[in-house]
Design goal:
The protein is mainly beta. The chain contains 2 helices and 17 strands. A hairpin with a 2-residue loop joins strand 14 and strand 15. It folds into 2 domains: about 140 residues, Pnp Oxidase, Chain A (Roll); about 90 residues, no CATH class. The strands form 4 sheets. Strands 1, 2, 3, 4, 14, 15, 16 and 17 form an 8-stranded antiparallel sheet that branches. Strands 6-12-8-9 form a 4-stranded antiparallel sheet, with no helix packed on it.
């Protein structure tokens, strides 16, 4: 293979590895709009009239930007300098919950919540909110240790409506519950004092030789010393993407000072 022109087909995967152990820090398989930007700084030598005589290059900078097609929790955690936390039997992750409940018919005005609130009393559920047919809250009912004409109560997951509530009325209940191994919860937290970790970024590029489009090859873009930035903007819509930016830095203690490397192995075809 004498490859001189490479036609890019798609990006199959991008990974960030630990700089020294090569442990996988995060991985993406849905990468869109990848772009590599290379820029440099220069200093001009001028004469007495400020006319340019010569220009000297001083520094290069490389920045890779792309977006994930999906909201990726692993990428979000990496951008936040944290990790994805999943609840289990030994790890409790609290989660808020919006639950709509309906007053049942009959004299027993009770309902069972989907989850048991993490706390008890007014700390857990200070109010429940009556809803209009369009879901808009129109009135609130306070908590009391015993339900009455003007107050509701709850014990565990059992909620007792106020005695004047009419059958068929809908109420919004807002509370927190404990995520565990039964009620699984996944969480990512962005803290003010935590930032992304540096590593080695490798992206797998699938393409073909311009003279042989029948055979696909796998290329690799490598940023040996890469840092994911903590700047990003998420759009919470169906069409929204998850953007990210990686800055390449020179390996200061390396002799070659590589910022990036593009490798296309010969004889290694892609499926």
């Amino acid at each position: 293979m004498q490859l001189t022109n490479f036609v890019i087909n798609r990006i199959s995967r991008g990974v960030m590895l630990h700089s020294t152990t090569n442990e996988l820090l995060w991985s993406l398989s849905q990468i869109e709009s990848p772009s590599l930007t290379v820029s440099s700084e220069s200093v001009d030598a001028v004469d007495a009239l400020s006319s340019p005589i010569m220009s000297f290059d001083r520094a290069k900078s490389v920045e890779f930007s792309a977006q994930s097609s999906l909201l990726d929790l692993g990428l979000l955690a990496a951008q936040s300098g944290s990790s994805v936390v999943a609840s289990d039997a030994s790890t409790i992750v609290k989660s808020p919950f919006f639950e709509e409940v309906t007053v049942p018919t009959g004299s027993d005005k009770e309902t069972t919540l989907k989850f048991t609130p993490s706390a008890s009393g007014a700390v857990a559920i200070p109010y429940i909110y009556r809803l209009k047919s369009d879901g808009t809250p129109i009135a609130k009912v306070p908590y009391a240790s015993t339900s009455s004409a003007n107050a509701f109560s709850f014990s565990g997951a059992t909620l007792s409506f106020h005695t004047t509530a009419d059958a068929g009325e809908r109420y919004l209940v807002i509370y927190e519950y404990d995520g565990d191994d039964t009620n699984e919860v996944v969480s990512v937290t962005n803290r003010a004092d935590e930032f992304p970790k540096a590593g080695k970024f490798i992206m797998n590029v699938v393409g073909a030789d311009v003279c042989d489009i029948s055979t696909s090859y796998m290329g690799y873009l490598i940023l040996p010393q890469a840092k994911l930035t903590s700047n990003f903007e998420l759009t919470f819509t169906t069409e929204g993407k998850h953007p990210f930016t990686i800055k390449a830095m020179q390996e200061y203690c390396s002799t070659d000072k590589a910022l990036f490397q593009l490798i296309v192995p010969q004889g290694l075809s892609a499926a």
